[in-house]
Amino acid sequence: MLDLRQLRYFIAVAETEHVGRAAEQLRISQSPLSRQIAQLEKKLGLTLFERTQQRIRLTRDGAVFLSEARALLRHADRLENLGRRLGRGEEGGLCIGYAPDAMHTGVLPGALRRLQEERPGIHVALYNMSASEQFEGLRQRSLDIALVREPPDRDDPVLRAAPLLEDPLLLVLPAGHPLAAQDTVTAQDLDRQPWIAIEEEGDPGWRDAFVASCVASGFAPDIRLDAPEPLTALGLVASGLGLALVQKSMVRGVTDAVVVRELPWREASVHLWAVWHHIDLRPVVSSFRETVLSHERTRSEEPVSASAT
Asked: Phi then psi for 249, rounded to 5 degrees?
């Protein structure tokens, strides 16, 4: 049986790549920390670190083990949180996994607002996680509902899913860009323009997928910058550093420094799905799921003006 304390020690050393700094972080001395790591390696029959006089580094196997150790500790934390809430008689509360899109589209905040109106004292724990982590959390019953960009496999024996919305991608360009004066933008207009690509967390092939989708639409982007999320991309566009494709829900209320254009010839959207375990154990879970599924997504249905105001 794995010792969760040893896993926490291992993660601290792996993240700092320094036993001394990890010991300070954990508020223990170096010797017992080194012993705990050695005991973990012996128990696993696995070398987790390469050690030299200058530094300590993860092995390839250690890096794989680190990813799983983090996931296990996240699950343990959620399980502890659930147990404490059950002990306080809170109907178990709710543990919700979500992708960032669930927040800025208003789907999750709207559902939580209705939940608080109906059950004012209920405790809610929110976890920003990748889709695969959310699906695993549902299977292990440490999550009650997941809000993700992509649904699980149709033949998944445990998970069920329903679409929540489509959030169209719109062209955002600097107000001073020559194309900003045009009411209509064609694929040929966008060819070889400087672009800001927006990363998709958890998808190592996101950049290639973005380029391929652009080429399929008839233009080749000249990617100058990568943005970690849409809000950063909007800021970079406002600074005149390139063009970007941003969800409709994100472009309301942007500054005069950017202009928004629809691209009717390019059908592309960000999707949001609700996913849950096929067996309901608690009424509060099924009730909240119905709230999410029936949420009126007026923000995603409002028309967008041709330029920002």
From this structure: -65, -15
